Amino acid sequence: MREAFRSGAIGLAVCAAFAGAVFVALFSGASWLAETRVDSAVSAFGNSASEAREYLVEDSRWVAIEYGKTVAAILLVYWVFASGLGKGRITTFKLPNWLLAFALAGITTGVINRYFYWAETYCDQLPYPHDGFQILRIHECPSSGIFFHALVAVSLLAAVTSLVLRIVQSRNFERIQ
Prior knowledge:
- By secondary structure, this protein is mainly alpha-helical.
- The protein contains five helices and no strands.
- The protein has helices at 2-28, 30-45, 49-85, 94-116, 143-176.
């Protein structure tokens, strides 16, 4: 049991390092993002450049903070359950590690979409530039908005699947030993 908690702490530290690096990049990049988007925000909303810049920085930092809080909660719950219900070295199983990596990548991609406004670019245009979901037009709405929401949902499902597999594999491995 003690080995599972030690292994879980290592897994949490590795995942938290990745999430922390993404958080720092998003939070510190808010000013740069605002500078690149300020002209389009001024033309779209009619605010002054300083008001638009302030709003964009505030919004970008909010996205970064929400990402940090959400991923921290997911990882903490994940590794606490994995450590509490698993046995032995729970970080050594490849499939759960790959599924967890996919889950983190998918959640991060969804957040980066929100941060850079990829899916929202064409959402205000009617009629939409195309009908239905087309993978080659993933940057256009409404299909890209649906895609990114589905990606986050599938990523959460992958995290849950990874947790279940990690627990089952660790218990089976300990039983064999």
